[in-house]
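Suppose you are handed only two things: the residues of a chain and a line of SMILES describing zinc ion. What would the bound structure be? This form records exactly that question and the answer produced for it, so the two can be stored side by side and reused later without any lookup.

QUESTION INPUTS
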Amino acid sequence: MGLGRVETSTFMSDFLEKCGGYAVLDGGFATELERHGADLNDPLWSAKCLISSPHLVRRVHLDYLDAGANIIITASYQATIQGFEAKGLSREEGEVLLRRSVEIAREAREIYYDRCTKDSWDFVEAGNISRRPILIAASVGSYGAYLADGSEYSGKYGDSVTLETLKDFHRSRVQILASAGADLIAFETTPNKLEAQAYAELLEEEGINIPAWFTFTSNDGINAASGDSILECASIADSCKQVVAVGINCTPPRYIHSLISHIRKVSSKPIVIYPNSGETYDAVNKKWVKSSGVNDEDFVSYLDKWREAGASLFGGCCRTTPNTIRAISRALFDKSNTDT
Ligand SMILES: C[S+](C)CC[C@H](N)C(=O)O
Ligand SMILES: N[C@@H](CCS)C(=O)O
Ligand SMILES: [Zn+2]
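ANSWER OUTPUT
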């Protein structure tokens, strides 16, 4: 935002304090786009809507703000210059779309704040208007997301993909998103430690002046999706001074408690978790297979255990909805009231 380097050491603790100790993230972004009628059977997946239906992108952000989110994540998960070029767009057009993903989220935040000011009420505290703190996190999906074959859940990129490949792949998108007005970068659905190392080095080499979080996927509650130890993955995040939170996303709720406990062993940074519903992704048909998913009530029933294990930022990933986020928000809000 041209305001110079953000003070990362206190960024997240200050934000969490303003939120009342815990923060609520949004839920499945693509899931909610589909609920509004978007067809995401495309190599760009949800990023397709940046081209075809930006109004829906804004609408989904607003749905999650209405549900109580303190952090909304941009539609750039599968938006890459390389992916846009494969669709026939120019590099410049790709850059515009990446920036637009942040602008749309910022517009949604402004609309939400304007509405709240007009309706005022839950924002009036002791005679002062206090606005719910809201951050915009710019999504950077993993290389596996760009491959569009579900390999963000396997992390097996093959021997030809090196640290340098990954750094080169992510470099321009990270630079563009960091200068587009986001508050932080969400490096999400990361399946292996090589990619975490690439992110850490990029943040440093490019002098990225906004903070970041790294979240990993897992298929077993002990390791990242690739089989790399979650301890090693979280240690890489912990060593990077621009990382203000580390955690897990798009992973079944049943694995989350164990993963939080492992992460806590190697990092004292805030832990962020936004699990999926527990269903399985069919990457060939680009559809979720309804099998072992949990409903919103079950999802929220895990919250206490996740808080006890040490997490402080909570949301949902694929197949969770504004109802999930509303339930999380209520559960945290009621809890923090009874705790004090
Ligand atoms: C987080 S997954 C469900 C995203 C979609 C995947 N990268 C694909 O293109 O099939
Ligand atoms: N922010 C992305 C993550 C997909 S795993 C989404 O919610 O669609
Ligand atoms: Zn997901």
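WHAT STANDS OUT: Residues 8-339 form a domain with the TIM Barrel fold (CATH 3.20.20.330). The longest strand covers residues 135-141.
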